[in-house]
Amino acid sequence: MTQARTYPIIVTAQDGTVKTFSLQIVRSSEPSKEILDTNHDGFISIDDVSKLVLEQFDVDGNGFDSNDVMYLLRQIEPRFVKMK
């Protein structure tokens, strides 16, 4: 799901001509793995998620809340260690 917001920008030229432009900002509610991987090691770990929670990373654009925390926790990638 993506969210789009449009903002009007009103510009007045030196001769007094007024023109209105629209700026549309589209934000995906699913952040990329690269954004969530804060230490850039190729995995989303509990350390990455902890950092994002402390920074109150807003995943869905409606303010940081428990839904953001739950989403981030679900992104943690398990690592397997092979024992000999």
What distinguishing features does this structure have?
84 residues; alpha+beta; two-stranded antiparallel sheet; 3 helices; 2 strands; elongated
Secondary structure topology:
Elements: E1 2-12, E2 18-28, H1 33-36, H2 46-54, H3 66-74
**Gyration radius, to the nearest Å?**
20 Å
Strand content: 25-35%
How far apart are the first and last residues' alpha carbons, in Å? Answer: 45 Å
- The number of helical elements comes to 3
Give the biggest beta sheet. 2 strands, antiparallel
In spatial order, strands of the major sheet run 1-2
How much helix is in the residues? 25-40%
Which secondary-structure class do the elements indicate? alpha+beta
Beta-strand segment tally = 2
Low-confidence stretches: none
Shape call: elongated
Domains counted in the coordinates: how many? 1
Average pLDDT number: 87
Element order: H for helix, E for strand: EEHHH
Explain what the structure shows.
- It is a single chain.
- The protein is built from 3 helices and 2 strands, in the order E-E-H-H-H.
- By secondary structure, the chain is of the alpha+beta class.
- It has one domain.
- The chain has a two-stranded antiparallel sheet.
- Strand 1 (2-12) and strand 2 (18-28) form a beta hairpin.
- Helix 2 runs antiparallel to helix 3 (66-74).
- 8% of the residues are buried.
Summarize the structure.
With 84 residues, the chain is an alpha+beta fold. The chain has helices at residues 33-36, 46-54, 66-74; strands at 2-12, 18-28.
